[in-house]
Amino acid sequence: MFSPVDQIKERLNIVDVVSMYMTLTSAGKNYKGKSPFKQERTPSFYVSPDKGLYHCFSTGKGGDMFTFVQEMEGLDFKGSLKVLADKAGVSLQNFNPKEKEEKDKLFEIMEEATKVFEGFLSKNEEVKLYIKNRGIEESTVKDFRIGYAPDGWRNLYDKLKDKYSDKDLALVGLVKKTEKGVYDTFRDRIMFPICDSSGRVIAFSGRIFKDDGKSGKYVNSPDTPLFNKSDVLFGIDKAKNYIRKYNFTTIVEGQFDVISLHQAGFKNTVAVSGTALADGLVGKDKQVNNLGVIKRLSNNVVLAFDSDTAGINAAKRSAHIGMALGMDVKIVDITEGKDPADFLKDFGKDAWSKILREAEHVIVFYAKKIKQQAKEEREVGRRIKEEVLPLISELESEIEKSFFIKKISELANISESYIVSDLQKIKKIDKPETEKAEEKQKPKNQNTEEVIEKEIWGIYVNKEKPEEFKEKIIKIVGQKNFDLMEEKYKDKESEFIFGEKDYIIGEKEAFKNFEHQNIRKKILTIKEEIKKAEELGDEKRADELTKELDDLGKEKDVINNSRYSNS
Question: Whole-model pTM?
Answer without folding.
Answer: 0.68
